[in-house]
């Protein structure tokens, strides 16, 4: 893809650029989860079952994983701004596909393309935010940039379902209008990004392209593996609420309201984002202790709420668990950033996101398959038990590493 020349476009200050990238990060991540409460409408229109929903969701996750492997690291030598613009334009392409190709194959392709945009974006935006903030405020603790990055990532994921639910419940053409609105937002964001300062000096000549090296940083490999397990476990829970929350609300709680489906996912992801920001000042070991307690208590409440069934208990448990996995994921990301070599930060973060999104895709797809064989409540209980064990073990291991 040929990008516009940007050398003559006046650049904003690094501090302003930091917030432009953060807001763009938020918008792109939000659009990636807008379809969550719309899946029942697609099911009603086209008559497919829950397994097809998981296939559509898995296409998104596959797009993320493949693009992370192929392009998540290229901003280390092509430049952060250029790669971010490409990511936003790819997201805009997915919105266009949603508008013009509306049957099941079209949904799968649109979600695959949308996932590709996220894979290109996440590590690049995270690295760019860190570098912009370090230039704008060199004496500031790096945890601030990490917290804003994590909040934009998880906060965007939380806003998308709420926005989709509002469109589905109160506005006309809910399968068209949200994609049109975000298409405009994404195109505007791509233009504004052109004013953001570049933070990477491109080598001359450019190195030969190669896919992402699945290499663990040389320093403290054990710490990186532990953090990666934490990211995988955290995203496994988030994948449940991103892909199948509306299905469980209908089958288990007899609650088909589209806004409720969006609000449920928003509450879980919103708790994850809020925890990252509000608890950023605490020591890492304290944050991980809170994460362990919240994951254990929250997932237990999710299981109890499903068995009774009591929607309120289920929602409160999801919010508590969301707070826990938000802290768990942020700690994983901070560990990866601290261990990365400066010249390979984008590559290291891309690997961490690749592992995280594998946690988002694989368990959710297995849950979709299980739903064709067993009752929804039984599937949910088994999934919750496995994620509870994984998140608590990951939190304990990361806390021990932090103590060292």
UniProtKB/TrEMBL annotation:
SUPFAM superfamilies in the cross-refs: MFS general substrate transporter
Superkingdom: Bacteria
UniProt feature coiled coil, ranges: none
Membrane association type: Multi-pass membrane protein
Gene3D superfamilies the record matches: MFS general substrate transporter like domains (1.20.1250.20)
TM region(s), chain numbering: 12-31, 51-71, 83-102, 108-130, 142-168, 180-203, 224-253, 259-279, 286-305, 311-329, 349-371, 377-398
Subcellular location: Cell membrane
Keywords: Cell membrane, Membrane, Transmembrane, Transmembrane helix, Transport
Keyword rRNA processing part of the UniProt annotation: no
Annotated ranges, domain Major facilitator superfamily (MFS) profile: 16-402
Pfam families according to UniProt: MFS_1
Matches recorded under PANTHER family: MAJOR FACILITATOR SUPERFAMILY MFS_1 (PTHR23517:SF13), RESISTANCE PROTEIN MDTM, PUTATIVE-RELATED-RELATED (PTHR23517)
Protein name: MFS transporter
Species annotation: Herbiconiux daphne
């Amino acid at each position: 893809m040929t990008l516009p020349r940007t050398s003559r476009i006046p650049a904003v200050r690094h501090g302003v650029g930091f917030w432009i990238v953060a807001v763009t990060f938020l918008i792109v991540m939000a659009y990636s989860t807008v379809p969550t409460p719309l899946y029942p409408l697609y099911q009603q229109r086209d008559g497919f079952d829950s397994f097809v929903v998981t296939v559509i969701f898995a296409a998104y996750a596959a797009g993320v994983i493949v693009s992370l492997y192929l392009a998540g690291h290229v901003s280390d030598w092509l430049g952060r701004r250029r790669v971010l613009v490409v990511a936003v334009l790819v997201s805009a392409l997915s919105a266009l596909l949603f508008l013009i190709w509306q049957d099941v194959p079209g949904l799968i392709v649109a979600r695959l393309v949308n996932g590709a945009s996220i894979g290109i974006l996440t590590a690049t935006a995270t690295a760019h935010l860190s570098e912009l903030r370090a230039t704008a405020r060199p004496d500031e603790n790096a945890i601030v940039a990490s917290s804003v990055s994590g909040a934009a990532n998880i906060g965007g994921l939380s806003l998308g379902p709420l926005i989709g639910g509002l469109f589905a419940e109160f506005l006309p053409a809910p399968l068209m209008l949200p994609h049109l609105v975000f298409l405009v937002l994404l195109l505007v964001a791509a233009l504004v990004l052109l004013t953001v300062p570049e933070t990477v000096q491109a080598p001359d000549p450019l190195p030969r392209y190669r896919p992402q090296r699945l290499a663990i940083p040389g320093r403290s490999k054990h710490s990186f593996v532990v953090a990666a397990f934490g990211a995988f476990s955290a995203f496994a829970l988030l994948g449940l609420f991103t892909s199948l929350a509306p299905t469980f609300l209908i089958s288990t709680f007899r609650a088909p309201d589209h806004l409720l489906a969006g609000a449920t996912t928003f509450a879980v992801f919103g708790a994850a984002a809020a925890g990252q920001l509000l608890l950023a000042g605490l020591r890492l070991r304290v944050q991980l202790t809170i994460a362990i307690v919240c994951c254990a208590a929250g997932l237990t409440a999710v299981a109890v709420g499903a068995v009774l069934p009591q929607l309120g208990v289920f929602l409160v448990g999801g919010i508590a668990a969301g707070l826990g996995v938000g802290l768990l994921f942020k700690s994983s990301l901070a560990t990866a950033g601290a261990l990365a070599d400066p010249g390979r930060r984008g590559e290291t973060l891309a690997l961490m996101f690749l592992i995280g999104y594998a946690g988002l895709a694989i368990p959710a797809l297995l849950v979709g398959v299980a739903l064709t064989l067993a009752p929804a409540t039984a599937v949910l209980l088994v999934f919750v038990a496995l994620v509870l064990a994984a998140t608590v073990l990951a939190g304990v291991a990361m806390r021990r590493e932090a103590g060292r």
